[in-house]
Structures
1.
Amino acid sequence: MPQESTPRRERKRTVQQMVLVGVIASAAGIALGLSIHWFPPADSTQADKVDTLWDVLIIATVPVFVLVTVVVLFSVLEFRMRPGEENLDGPPIHGSTRLEVIWTAVPAILIVGLVTYAYIVLHDIEKAPAAGNPERHVAVTGQQFTWSFAYNEGGKKFTSAQLYLPVGESVKFDVGSKDVIHDFWVPDFRMKIDAVPGITTHYRITPKASAIGNHDIVCAELCGLGHAFMRQTAHVLSKPDFDKWVQSKIAKPAATAGGAQPATIDAKKLFTEGNPDTSATACGTCHTLADAGTTATTGPVLDKVLKGKDAAFIKQSILQPSAVIAPGYQDGIMPSNFGDTLSAEQVDALVQYLSKVTNK
Amino acid sequence: MPVALRAPGWWRALAYIVLGIAFCYGLSIGARALFGYDPLLDGESVLRISLIAVPFFFLVGLGCFDYWFYWAAGRPTRPEDHSGHGAYSWKDYFRPNTDHKVIGIQYVVTSFFFLFVGGLLAMLMRAELAAPGRQFVDANTFNGLFSVHASLLIFLFVIPVFAGLANFVLPLMIGAPDMGFPRLNALSYWLLPVAGLMMLLSFAAPGGSFASGWTAYAPLSTSAPLGQEFFTVGVQFAGASSIATALNFLVTIITMRAPGMSFFRLPLLVWANFSTSLLVVIATPFIAASQFFVLLDRGLQFNFFNAGKGGDVLMYQHVFWFYSHPAVYIMMLPSFGIISEILAVKARKPIFGYRMMAFSLLAIVVLGFTVWAHHMFVSGMQPWIRIPMMITTAIIAVPTGIKIFSWLATLWRGVLHLDTPMLFALGFLTMFTCGGISGVMLAMIPLTIHVSDTYFIVAHIHYVLFGGSLFTIFAGVYYWFPKMTGRMYDERLGRLHFWLTFVFFNLTFGPMHIIGVQGMPRRVSDYAQQFATWNLFISISAFILGLSSLIFAYNMIASWRGGPRAVANPWRALTLEWQVSSPPPIFNFDAIPTVVGGPYEYGVPGAVHGVFKGAEVPAPAGTHATTTAE
């Protein structure tokens, strides 16, 4: 036998030590995994179930990683080649049917368990509210690079550039797209679905009491130039506030959201920051304008393309971006919803401002 | 005509490229005139035809088709076509060569070139992402950066570098003088630089490079500027190369094994490439189809994916992932082969459970075709499809687990030589486990609904493809470097390279799990303020990770030029490639070996894998009988 003697033999103590280290490391790993603040706020009833699933997965999988790592480390410490062993070989062990059966069966059982649990969670987060409980439908439409939301409240139909939801009521989103694939995602609610041209996709959530306030809406599917900027806000309101909002939308169907306008409109600020209340994209996100100090190149340089143009042209370019396309740029990149997201006064202020600074 | 333009080579290739461009102009103008289009000259149309046609002119000019054309025309074929075998100077690496060892090195060097280009693109991305807001590239360029990064590293690095390593060592391992189809082998290689160059040149296309991700989802890809077609067509060339090589491997493995080399005496690298080749041959035509659909939609308004005209948008994703999920295993199974070789040799022990290792590869091949729609859990497809896909996706962890545990058992009680290849192999074991675990998590639909299209996915794929595939590629390159070049690499630099890569790999991609779950979407040039700290941290780690690869590059180049000469078998390995000189003789073996035992009989007294004619034959493994050579 090429094996000399005890120093190279697997010692019982080694295995015991390894098991001990493995158990401690697993416990520490699980504790660390559970203490990390992984998720954004859990603001839908669905979110709690997803977050619990995550905890279960951490508890189930950390020991697997620890097992592999500990065996590698102990092998390195215990069985590394020492001086004088350059020509030594290990024992010719070719396998062990018993071990192989164990490490096929145990992971299989673990996986069947996890899959079953995941299926139950999936069923829970997708099931409809119990009979008799109301469920609101909101039609969500994605387009490059903005979302719009269509409501049907008691037979009155209206659209909004922002998402408003009452707390505690289930809402089902019917998601569609006008151009390419988008993905409607509110991280605080944990659910997402692609907005696919040609079909309508769905998911439902119920905002929790803690959800009152604002939540980011993020486009999660690459949709072109403005993908990174396709952000809007979901407002979760108390039931009375929501009803008030619905009344205001029904009273003025063409109304612009955003409440009372300040007496004077700072057009330059509007240009660089947009209107977060109505999620009007800032012009400066895509356009270069020397006076406002923006340098983006997604869209045409306004100092050049608006030079010598009159106010009517500028107004048309804001409200109907497809009317005239600057040479070298594509149609359909600029949002065409500024008529909805900006008030008439804001548009006029922008036109005045742009006309002044580009014709200096 | 001067001889230079008539003989195959770069001058003739250049002349043919000019001819090819003229042909494309002619075809475009002619067809437009015929149909009465105005204007007659349309740049896009010429470019589109050129993308498809000019590479063929180039390949014909270079001489990839000479033998077949002579044969088809009934002219005497020139024997020197095949004796373009072996490389006698560096120039021989720049022409079609039929020697699998030359082709192997061509593959490996070319794909490492693209690794460095792709890595550089990643550095540019991390620079842009170091802080929120816009640093120095606009949204269009950024979308192009990550699209080209992924496409190059998948189609021009991971897939071909494995084909390259296997090209070099596989015929040697099975005791064959070359691959089954040496001329097809040369052609497969030369399709690659064509594909890579095309993807890179897309940055010069009007409207910028392709920017719809490596997934090129329709209808974003069907409505994108012309740069998209550099991907659409480039993938066809890379895919054709892949399929031809896989066929070649299958034929070589099935028909060219040395006497006595039964399937269960094959080194596991051969098993791994056998499995991979099956995947490639069956799956790759599907990505070809998906990109032909896109090309027809773009060029000829077929409207496969135009919902307004009866097209089906989700169909693209099904066809695409029917290739691209198996592609993950195409990028993983050869790793498993490399790791098995290195662990057995460096732990001085037989592979634990050899047959289960081989069967688990085949199980992964079969299961690999049943999981594709787990990439589409939030795509809006029929909801019920998700359930069977979740189950198969999780189940595939079982054969993978068998492999991991068998490798661990191989290490146990061995005599571990902890040099550079072994360090990378052990790094692979732990990091790939990490990627595998996040893979099982991603099989769970409710979690995937939240984390799909976030940085969690970016973290997962890099743990699998960087911590998994790239670590084994490094391990394999270090391991076979003496055999391929006849020189030894610098061990100290190798270890430094490992430790820097291992540490900064984790610092780069580990935190991406956290920001992904927190809600940072992937493929964005800008992000919310809350992710700023982690992104800066990731960017700095990524830069150091990038710099550490320069140590590798220096080690390889300097050692190849002036490293100490390597002996035939520096690792005391049993497999056949180590039984011949480093580098091996021109037709590999002066006499074809006879295989008399398993490939990993370390620790078995007097064990031998193959014997050479005329040599004294020691006892086969496991027997005590003495035999003599015939």
2.
Amino acid sequence: MRKTTPSQDFIRGIWKENPVLIQMLGLCPALAVTNTVKNALAMSAATFFVICCSSVLVSSCKRFIPNEVRISAYILVIATFVTLADMMLQAYAPVQHKELGAFIALIVVNCMILGRQEAFSAKNNVFRSLLDAVGTGIGFTIALVMMGGFREILGTGSFLEYSLFGPNFEPWVVMVLPAGGFLTLGFILLAMGYFEQRRKPAKTEKAEQAA
Amino acid sequence: MSDQTLFSIFFSAMIVNNFTLAMFLGLCPFMGVSARVETALRMGLANIFVLVLTSLSAWFLNTFVLESFPFLRIISFIIVVASLVQIVEMVVKKLSPTLFRQLGIFLPLMTTNCAIFGLAIFQTNRGYGFLQGIVFAVGAGLGLTLALVLMASIRESIEFSDVPGIAKGTGLVLIIAGTLSLAFMGFAGML
């Protein structure tokens, strides 16, 4: 494995290896609960809590976890923290909890969290695992808020429930419906592909010739 | 106990609230194994099998165990799903090595397939009984299969068309999925 500095561990997850937009992990929450920015923020906060706590626990306990059962052990750790997050949201933000519904419990099966445990926390010390988790969590938040922003602004004409365009705006209802989630992420990926292609014209041509 | 009729549960899970296209559950296999129709179909069938087993186990846990320990729900469900997937993996490996190779990493990844875990959670939240749970699972599984097969057939025919460079890959798949989802929305008022 390539050696990285602690700052690289932190920065990598935010954009260059963004979990949602580049690695396509954790798509289920990214599409399902981003119909408003508020929901996206609540979901990101819960996921952030779970990924940080699990990374710290997994990296500090890595010596005691036998290699054969490591995946099950990671899932148990994650499930424990998801239960905690679920209960805390229910206690402190019951409205958001009701809005997100089953999707809080579904953080357990977010491949992004399990992926970070297996790929990073199991091999690195506590401090660097925490940095990695925080970076990935921020990357996840950026992606979710970006999608939530697009969908809420176009779908209801408001941002964080603050009306932007006045009463004459005709909302694009499709954006807050399930189809809007697919379309938004699809168009974001297309835009990213476009900029990537413009930035490296030579490289893309080579790849096309090879294909 | 929910008082929905069996038919409305079945139809709602399969078409109106299709797990993949309306609730975004099970997107990993939807993106990953939807390149060939045949593989997609088999993946769908494997999913139906696991979903029905999960529904049974979730009902059993809810009725006999979790009543006194509701806070253990998430943990016990994920353990049940993980062990079920392990069993299915062994069975598939024994019965059809070809299928095992075709499904590849997506078979063990069923553990972290939101559709299966989600089914257990939704079933609990809506208070479905034994029979309702099974019907819900079969409906959801058929819905997943339908979405997978539709997607795979579209992708098979799009393979030969001239797609602009930036749209190759996931971006295009997502936009097709969005269009499919729009089509399924046509059923929204039916129930």
3.
Amino acid sequence: MRTAVITFPASNCDRDAAVALRKVTGVKPVMVWHRDTELPKDIEFVIIPGGFSYGDYLRCGAMASRSPIVADLVKKAKKGLAIAGFCNGFQVLTEAGLLPGALMRNKGLKFVCRPEKLEIINNTSRYTAKYNDQSEVIYPVAHHDGNYYANKETLNKIEGQGQVIFRYKDNPNGSVNDIAGICNEGGNVFGMMPHPERAIDPMHGGTDGIKLFKSIIESI
Amino acid sequence: MSKKVKITPEVVAEHGLSEEEYEVILDRLGREPNINELGIFSVMWSEHCSYKSSRRHLSKFLTKGDRVIQGPGENAGVIDIDDGDAIIFKMESHNHPSYIEPYQGAATGVGGIMRDVFTMGARPIALMNALRFGEHSHWKTKQLVNGVVAGIGGYGNCVGVPTVGGETNFHKGYNGNILVNAMCVGLARTDKVFYSAAKGVGNPIFYVGSKTGRDGIHGATMASAEFDDNSEEKRPTVQVGDPFTEKLLIEACLELMETDAIIAIQDMGAAGLTSSSIEMADKGGVGVLINLDDVPQREEGMTPYEMMLSESQERMLMVIKPGKEKLAYEIFEKWELDVALIGKTTDTGRLVLKHKKKKVCDIPIAPLADDAPNLNRPYKVPKSLPIINSSDIHETQDYNDALLRIMGSPDICSKRWIWEQYDRHVMTDTLDSSQSGGDAAIIRIHNKNKAVAITTDCTPRYVQADPYQGGKQCVAETWRNLTCVGADPIAITDCLNFGNPEREDIMGQFVGAIEGMNEACRAFDYPVVSGNVSLYNETNGVAIPPTPAVGGVGLIPDLEYFSSISGAKEGDTLIMIGETNGWLGSSIYLREILRREDGAPPPVDLDVEKINGDYIRKLIRNKRVNAVHDCSDGGMAIAACELALTNNIGVHLQRSSGCPLHAWLFGEDQARYLISVEKNSVNPILTTAEDRGVKAYIVGKVGGMNIKAEGAFDLPISTVREKHENFLPELMS
């Protein structure tokens, strides 16, 4: 199975995402440059990695969401391509309109990096199906702008349709309804601020992240 | 500043040059310099660039060793960690700018030290920082802590290099001069290390990175003078950083380094284009011709003087192999970086600058380096403070209170508020960091079964009390910290922060500390491979406590065998490796409980350090220990508390020696390690210790949920944790 990781200028978790994909699929993902206008053929799962694309200038994820490769992702997402964005990737997905809501500056105004306990709200999603035997995971967070916001109408909709996948147990950033990760209506596009790719090795202090990758890979 | 500026004695003095130095310039040029040339001599001969007060003393350091590929003199030091892998590292100060503009000063300190490392072909894999602030209650401290921490995080987080450890102290001695020392560790291949010597004539010189602006002009000169009440007016000389450009520079340079296009490369750090071009030319024995009109400029109408002295950040200079220009352009344009061909190497041995078709500078390069002042400043090494007998030091009547006060004191408290603002996990090879409260950070070598251990240390109060013993102690503590995680200590970098070297006593602190450090380096075969000196850390004549910060790097050759402060288990026995005599002079107990800062610091016996450390490493390799923690600030009581907090399990200490109880608990005798071991390992450990001449004593056990010491304190972990965790958040709220 072919997977891909997008690299923007100042993406900095692109290698980490690639390591995780390789570990789970056994195959190196294709690294795709932000200026490419089209994904390589037969890509079935794409990660938009964490980092500070375009230095977070203007707004986190805003400039990356206007890049040539994201235009192609938007087209393919509508046809059902599986796309996950972690941290900055989540910001890019909301800026691109592929996921509802927006990420604002953390409530405490400071960058926060710590292992975070998350509650799995929906373990029937394509990204969480493998977590059938557990209701909580620990993934690290590391962000300055992870305060998720959506208006009431949108919130009601995503909460009602099972699009809220993860919630923080101890909200680090002020996110509304403690939301940590969501998917789109089709369930193929997923974004979260925490970093599952930083929890895939016992030496990381935990391997809770592996099942997230396994879930989506096996769903394809 | 136009070239018509008349060179008066006032202008010379404003450039920080002495009359004698100016005479040398006149002699070497055979004429009066123009303002551009004067500016260039001024920065090259500044304390910051020329090390004129320190050079002769630094040359005493042990700088060679089996694993040393490159010692001091390049952008950073290079060591061999087997399998064709090299570690490139250095620590550097950014003190003066950080005091004036904390966010940008600290951020650009991080940026600068990273450039020193990737310039040599290494991908940065870890950042550390050693910070010293004024008294916590001083009106300026909170603002400085906020700005410095945000600046370090803002830069390192964006670039995507984990900030994995460091240390933070508070003392009134830093009220007017904070210290921001940043360390970067990078990974390269031993056959792909890049140097700065610009070899060959007629080779193109490329400028890459941010455009040159008017920021940071004379930053190096600022760092070579004392502060006074008007220092904040120096804000315009503080540079502004852009981590986004730095990240692109790292990727672009590493990509170009994969090819064979680069002859020499140098970052533009202090004194910008001036020092980078001169260093490259001097090391390569060539001349340089630069056409300043081709330098990418951020502002209109910049003069040659401004361009040469600007310290705009995120800029690199490189000499490219003829014929490889197109390749270089392609890579830099891919990363959307400004790139320009600004000159070439020549056979003249001179630095020639052209601007608007006129020659605006023409000076011989050799004197800029060779004739740089090398002062033999008078010095008087201060005598050690007198030894205080521990039985003459008042015993606390309330041990619970004393323990809580120390655990919640500015230097000992949890620094979570700081390190939670740093991304410690990016690159996913961080195996241990500040998060554990352990002794050294552990960073795995990507895709390999080995790791490097990294630590920074300095105990300024010891150096203040006795520069020589204090100097030894700084090096010994890093060696001990690396040992605690099972690493073989390899080499150090240092950042020597002192006051005004023109004062005999300050110069004496400097010389004494170096002597002590060097002795420790030699005893451990633990060379200095890079470093920096920061002098003139004084305000209105008051100097900082002498602070020779040391950054140590070690190798964990097999990830099957390493250790940390984590891992202590219910039922474990606590053993203290090393003798406890209860040394309270210059201790945390004396300072925090009795408000006294006196007494000789604990002596460091390097032979004992060596056998104790070697034994600890052997125990770790034999998997005999569950947890190891260095016994340092605050003594055994604090080491035991930290072990208990990290593992969330109680400890129970029982006195093992005849020294007074408060001295036994809080004494800061050196060469000690607290280890937590299974019951059935106790006897073998004690027996082997005896055979090796290592002192080892059972000092307590692990279990329950209280931290207690027989006849002294008894507190729930939660109470101690609260005190330990709350200090900084409360201070900063």
